[in-house]
Amino acid sequence: MTKRKTVSSRENTSTHEFNDSPPVDQNESSESIEPEPTLSTGSEVSNVQLDVQGRKSNKYWTVDLEDANGVIKEGHLRLKDVWVLSRETRIIVHWNEHGQPIGESGGLLGLFLGAVAGNFKNFPISYEKWPLVPTEPYKNGAYRDIIQRFFKVDDGQQKKYILQNLGRKWKDDRCKLFNDNYKWNLTREQNIAALPKGFGVSLEQWATFIDYRLRSKTQDMCEKNASNREKQTIPHTLGSKTIARKKHELETANKRVFTRAEMYPISHKKKDGSFVNDEAREKSEQLTLLQANESSTDDAYVKLFGKEHPGRVRGVGFGVCPSQVMKSSNSFGGVSSSCNHDFDMAKVRCMEVELQENKATISLLQAQVTYFINHCMGGKVPHDFPTATNNGVADSPIETRPSSTIP
């Protein structure tokens, strides 16, 4: 029987060489409260349950914990609780078919990766870009000594996703560090002397980073990036929740696959059901019309938003390449549907959920019967009490455990 277990504090055994203490900033408010748009609308997604349950609680994450013996128990964790897990305990992370973390474990992992990337003892800011950060000792060391210390993840696709995610967060955090602390009305020397505290940055690294940011080439690149961001006029409304996690919640509740075209209005509507702006509403309406004339929803998506670029797929989420979700031409222009594959995967996920629910019910019934026999019948079962053998055929009664072993 699955046991609920709230982990609030344990002995701190985290002594890795990168960051031997939790980040100073343990404020989880941005991740703890995730906007859930009220999506009761529209012809784009009809006859489905959209107002689905996400997290069981906004105060903690409900995850599966595995000990050294392979025993799995349910735990309730906040970010700061992860850092003090015993060395025998790791968090099981659930992934979808595209190699993206999902469920509450995926949300907690994302929050944890942000804390790791934001401590620059783990990845120094003196390197100009993420690919230049040495694999050893930094990337592999952080993955082995920090991530795998607390989370049960493999060295294949899951490692690839996590390192890519760390790189993006590191880049964003490094940019924010400069914008928040560099004062343009002060000299270079004065800014270097004003070393930001609490981020794991040494004076030498801070000076190197400032010199990099003050180069004319770097400033030109920053201006170009800022200009490109201004062109992104349709923000999503999922908050800190990834589109992969939202899609998984919807598919689990409705027992069917949700396409990119269906996820577009879902991820661009406010709590009151209205679109985030007129442009988002117009795009959704155009997408609905195109679907009626195209052979697949992917074809309609590409026709409206343009060809996919190598390394990403719009409307699917971070860490997914076109080859993972669709068949495509060399230019990623002609896209064919992958609905059959997605539908099969959705059915598999639903069957897994039902199986876990059935196991929990069986475990509960077994515990209740054993308790009744031990406490109400003195540990003895009637001669004609039905039991079952390995082949499912009724057999003679079996002895029950002594009452002292019943939890």
TrEMBL record:
Region described as Disordered: spans on this chain: 1-48, 387-407
Database matches in InterPro entries: Probable_transposase_24
Compositional bias annotation for Polar residues: 24-48
Domain of life: Eukaryota
Name of the protein in question: Transposase Tnp1/En/Spm-like domain-containing protein
Species the sequence originates in: Arachis hypogaea (Peanut)
